[in-house]
Write a structure and sequence with these properties.
Layout (H helix, E strand, L loop, with lengths): L2 E6 L3 H10 L7 E4 L3 H11 L2 E2 L2 H7 E6 L6 H8 L10 E4 L6 H8 L4 E5 L9 E7 L4 H10 L4 E5 L5 H9 L1 H18 L4 H22 L3 H8 L5 H11 L2 H19 L2
Parallel strand pairs: 1-2, 1-4, 2-3, 4-5, 5-6, 7-8
Antiparallel strand pairs: 6-7
Helix pairs in contact: 7-12, 8-9
Bound molecules: NADP nicotinamide-adenine-dinucleotide phosphate.
């Protein structure tokens, strides 16, 4: 096998993971996409090789399936005959909703690592949940080593993948709406867009970093920054009037349900 990782589909998520993987010293990566130019551009930026899809399938140890769930069956028809006949071959799926058993039905009975990554993997700050078939167990540590620069990995039961995906996979879009809204408010109050965006982004990063380090519950954190009769509690009251928390919970539920539908 010439490549450690062969990415098939170099769109948003495949591209982010390939970017993270390319930071691993000595790693051999093949990139392929239906749009050959997309793979070539990314390969040039990352110092990897752009190849055709069948080559990535035939010559990679970890074949990373980076296409939309709806495209997976078509991809399987295309590459299943080309997959290497090797005990080392492992399929890695990032497809929302698709169970490992479905991947094996489509591609063949190869070991499967199922991951649920998010876009911040591109900057090494991703949250990636994963599970794997029993026969993939001997291959997992090596995969985690290759992907060490993607962010934080957490192993979970497959039954919880759709929920994890709704929080961490879809979350960057939800958080971006929040950042945009904070900056709109800042502009309304007289900040430049540039100032407002910087303050909102750094605030969210700092809040998350501090909470990860000290483990304090969000309610306690919020209480600690709301002084009696102050400005922060005035803002919190507005968010509660707008059913902020209930709306976010419904967004996560809707995303989770949609993941389940995509897997059917
Ligand atoms: N985006 C996220 O935040 C996120 C988070 C977690 C998981 N995921 C999962 O990641 C996977 C990819 O999502 P994405 O957002 O990266 O999608 P995307 O941006 O559309 O990327 C998919 C890429 O694969 C290409 N492709 C499709 N069929 C192909 C084939 N048969 N052979 C080679 N290349 C093919 C597509 O080309 P065309 O553009 O020509 O179709 C596109 O360039 C999905 O399964 C999704 O559930 C995404």
């Amino acid at each position: 096998m010439q490549y450690d990782l062969g990415f098939i589909g170099c769109g948003h998520m495949g591209g982010a993971l390939a970017t993270a993987a390319a930071r691993c010293a000595g790693v051999r990566i093949a990139l392929s996409d239906r749009d050959g130019e997309k793979a070539r551009t990314l390969a040039a930026a990352l110092g990897c090789e752009a190849v055709d899809t069948r080559t990535a399938a035939a010559h990679s140890r970890y074949v990373v399936l980076g296409v939309k769930p709806q495209m997976m069956a078509e991809l399987a028809q295309e590459i299943a005959p080309a997959l290497a006949d090797s005990e080392k071959l492992v399929l890695v799926s990032m497809a929302a909703g698709l169970e490992m058993a479905s991947i094996q039905r489509m591609f063949g009975a190869y070991p499967v690592i199922r991951i649920m990554p998010n876009i911040p993997c591109a900057v090494g700050a991703g949250m990636i949940t994963y599970c794997h078939t029993m026969d993939a167990a001997p291959h997992v540590q090596q995969y985690l080593r290759l992907m060490a620069h993607a962010g934080r990995f957490d192993r979970i039961d497959e039954g919880k993948m759709d929920a994890a995906s709704a929080v961490a996979g879809c979350g960057p879009a939800f958080a971006s709406l929040f950042i945009e809204a904070l900056s709109d408010g800042g502009v309304q109050c007289g900040l430049t867009r540039e100032q407002a965006l910087l303050y909102a982004r750094q605030m969210l990063l700092g809040t998350a970093q501090m909470a990860l380090e000290n483990g304090v519950h969000p309610a306690e954190f919020k209480d600690s920054v709301c002084s009696p009769g102050g400005s922060t509690i005035a803002g919190v009251a507005q968010l509660e009037d707008g059913a902020f928390r209930g709306t976010v919970m419904r967004a996560v539920r809707a995303a989770c349900e949609r993941n389940r539908e995509l897997g059917e």
